[in-house]
């Protein structure tokens, strides 16, 4: 604990909801709405009306609201570190990183000078044979061009990390953006080409050269899209695990010098690696042989400008925002610089920043109560698995064994990351980012061949999110999400179980969804299901696919029921588990309600209110096309339709919109 005396905390004012003493946001309700017709509107209508999307956002919901509150606290931590007279080494890194990022005058004076050495190296290339080493250098410094590289747990030996290469190289959000022929997609590609051309213009190209460069970039990315897996196929771990020796990789891609690439990227030797998508790399190899060097050099230049845009002068920042923020996502204004710098600091020094955040925002009994809730929901899951009449005893036994070994990580790591090898220089925002990327890549590569460190986290403590890790078989809940409205140590059980309890159940269920079920209790990809049980699981899952595919996201765009299957399964199973846990925790206790609602009604309201979200149409369209999560409305209504307990709690008549005639149910 930092015992240094802190000055009074002075933060900009942020209007937050007025919760009742029992934790419900009464002002967020729309009491004119019928909960049996549209529960999302009933739970969130007041909030949606009073919380339009801010100009610098593409969507705005309870997650964003809490993230903004956390961001203000992080800003205070960083500003104190930047102005500290005698900072600790860790505070010095935080302060120097933030101060450098905020020094807009220095960044503006440099213009595009920071990228000139990278562009000069591209200019000097004389053969496609030189590309592998150049790609390795780019990957080590934060330019993720052509494909992805890093390390991951071996799917079939979760005790070890191996190198992994994966498809990539696209400037648009998803491969289908290049392949769809509807009017909106064609228009967006035209806008993207215009953006690429404008970025080349800012780099000094004349109009004709900029237009030609944009055409070359779009042509290469379209060819890469054609050999990429779509986002539904990517969800099946069997499609993304292809362990090979270096010799097998060389045979797959005879025109690419992997030894030169790995040496430049920082990996000297590996006995095997995961080639996630062999067809992509086979196609990449063909493209390297068939596309002229000058086109590849143009593509590399684009990737440098694209990856570095936010680190350059205002002209590049604004143009980058114009396409990715405004055209693609619908935001009206660029986010203030301090927000962008806080997020950069969290990305590069997340655990150093998280340590201070935890000291300020996660004190008292918050962790203890969260741990108790997790244990209760795990008990509910064990009961749920034990009661599934569609599972054979053999599969049920395996499922219970996996559940028993799930490790719970609550709040923050027990051991904070050491950043001493990361060099942060005040006044060098560009270099700090590149060195931070290199530090992280080397940290990941250093894991290869070594025993897995089970204490590591993949999210920083201030993050408003949670996750299940199939290789670790852990559920992780950062301190950032263990705040109101998701969790409040002072709120009643019903609201907490509806909020964070539903999220806890959601993450637990991920261990048994269409992806997680393919990994065993030790984190290895292994088929532990009987054939009949697997077929029954698929049949029950298809109910969710069909149901959610009928929901309209925006305009003529439907929710992709296959892409969102895992999250929809987890939402439905998670809230059911939360309700079971609440009933178990309340057994034998007085069941009085509060705020005019019964405990069961309050649980559903707690769930509904954490998903209140307003979207811009552009953001909603992109989410429906690329995101594995359904839009917020269907994370609420799609769940209660499948829960007869909801209809009972709100006395819904049979046939009402929120009373499903044929509810879907897996867990």
Description:
The protein has 667 residues and is an alpha+beta fold. It has a domain at 113-312: Neutral endopeptidase , domain2 (Neutral endopeptidase, domain 2), CATH 1.10.1380.10. Helices cover 52% and strands 7% of the residues. The chain is built from 25 helices and eleven strands. The protein has helices at residues 39-50, 62-83, 89-102, 104-110, 116-123, 131-141, 176-179, 183-202, 207-226, 246-252, 258-265, 278-290, 293-308, 314-327, 337-361, 366-386, 393-404, 429-445, 493-510, 531-549, 565-586, 599-610, 617-626, 632-640, 644-649, and strands at residues 59-61, 147-154, 157-167, 243-244, 273-275, 407-411, 467-469, 474-478, 552-554, 557-558, 613-615. Helix 19 (493-510) crosses helix 21 (565-586) and helix 21 runs antiparallel to helix 22 (599-610). The chain is globular.
